[in-house]
Specification:
This is Phospholipid/cholesterol/gamma-HCH transport system ATP-binding protein. InterPro entries: AAA+_ATPase (IPR003593), ABC_transporter-like_ATP-bd (IPR003439), ABC_transporter-like_CS (IPR017871), P-loop_NTPase (IPR027417). The protein has 260 residues and is α/β, with parallel strands linked by helices. It has eleven helices and ten strands. It folds into two domains: 163 residues, P-loop containing nucleotide triphosphate hydrolases (Rossmann fold, 3-Layer(aba) Sandwich); 64 residues, no CATH class. A six-stranded mixed sheet has the order 6-7-8-3-9-10, sandwiched between helices. Strands 2-1-4-5 form a four-stranded antiparallel sheet. The structure holds adenosine-5'-triphosphate and magnesium ion (MG).
Length: 260
């Protein structure tokens, strides 16, 4: 009896160690618009977790609360076992350097070259790498990772949509984040380019062992990349499971996502 209990406790603590992001009972409203109504999520180390939800269901709001760009009304948000609401600005900044955020769209700075776009996060997070870093080397390596080393001196306006997305990904990767948050990484891209981005995301995950939270509408993207999925419906984590499990569900609200 005693032994069984100990094993149980040990299992629980190992599990806790492997959770890199956690949201518990998250609420967020804008006036009468109750967007998040008790949303829960756990991202495990090395996992690709996909969150799907209809347009306007609160996916971007959730991810913004997660990185502290937006304040939640209530709920717990833990990043690598730290409650982000309890952290000082400085501690939060250090933690942020470990989280890469690929914004919806690419959000490159239009007036800066590709090189300058990639230099920007390095200058913001000098603490992580120290002052004597070889900026040029890091920039080239990050661009090589996405197959765009030749675009160093181009302006964003000279790049295609898919290339912009890849440069944005390089800009996220340059800080060598432990966790990457992707907000609609394939939206607005043609299916072939979308596939290329998905392959790239997989390569990066394999190369660096990052944990990823991926927000997407794209059922193909979810099928290929997800280890686990959460469907965000009515402001809650309505359904949680593997792609296989959820796509076999008989719940009409869940089925609606997989009808093509
Ligand atoms: N800053 C804000 N002020 C007021 N309302 C907001 C704000 N940001 C988002 N909302 C509202 O919150 C709801 C959820 O928005 P959100 O951007 O999270 O949707 P989404 O699930 O990301 O949709 P999409 O798939 O289109 O990107 C929407 O009704 C939106 O109008
Ligand atoms: Mg969104």
């Amino acid at each position: 009896m005693m032994i069984e209990k100990n094993i149980e406790i040990e299992n629980k603590s190992t599990e806790a160690k492997n959770i890199v992001l956690e949201i518990k009972d998250l609420y967020k409203s804008f006036g009468d618009n109750h967007v998040l109504n008790g949303f829960n999520m756990q991202l495990h180390k090395g996992e690709n977790l996909v969150i799907m939800g209809k347009s306007g269901s609160g996916k971007s709001v959730m991810i913004k609360c997660l990185v502290g760009l937006m304040e939640a009304d209530s709920g717990l948000i833990r990043v690598m076992n730290k409650d982000i609401t309890q952290l000082t600005r400085e501690a939060l900044d250090i933690l942020r350097a470990d989280i890469g955020f690929l914004f919806q769209g690419s959000a490159l700075y239009d007036s800066m070259t590709v090189r300058e776009n990639l230099e920007f996060p390095l200058r913001r997070h000098t603490k992580k790498f120290g002052k004597n870093i070889d900026t040029e080397k890091l920039i080239i390596e990050a661009l090589e990772n996405v197959g765009l080393a030749h675009t160093l001196d181009l302006m964003p306006s000279e790049l295609s949509g898919g290339m912009k997305r890849r440069v944005a990904l390089a800009r996220t990767l340059i800080l060598q984040p432990k966790i990457i948050l992707y907000d609609e990484p394939t939206s607005g891209l043609d299916p072939i380019t979308a596939k290329e981005i998905i392959i790239l995301m997989e390569e990066i995950q394999n190369k660096y062992g990052t944990s990823s939270l991926i927000i997407t509408h794209d059922v193909d993207c979810a099928r290929v990349i997800s280890d686990r999925m959460i469907l965000l419906i009515d402001g809650t984590d309505y359904a949680v499971g593997t792609f296989k499990e959820l796509s076999a569900s008989k719940d009409p609200k869940v089925m609606a996502f997989f009808k093509q």
